[in-house]
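Morning!

This is the sequence you dropped in the shared folder:
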Amino acid sequence: MGVSVEGFLAMLDRLPEVSKGEDGDWISFKVRGKGFGYLWERTETVGLKATIEEQIALVAERPEVFEPQFTAGRFGWVVVHLAKIDADELFELVTEAWCLTAPKSLVEAHEFRA
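The structure's back. Tokens below.
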């Protein structure tokens, strides 16, 4: 179990139109200019956009893997400890964060190709 920083970055290459930006201590991830994730290489953690309900459920079920980051509007961002999650589950969360952020037409086109 566990995902390396390189493994996480490779997951992002599987999603269309992801842009990366370095902002000091972290790398941000956006789709068409809207943020859906962050990576802190030093701590090997990522922050991902989720629904508030998903954030609450993840943290309640496995607090050793997930912790709340913040809430903004209808979204609850969650911190994920890379060493404590398997790749399939992480990719599912990354994809969900991307889908919550990308324009509907882009999500539909991506789902059609998948």
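Headline: Residues 5-105 form a domain with the Aspartate Aminotransferase, domain 1 fold (CATH 3.90.1150.30).

More detail when I'm at my desk.
O.
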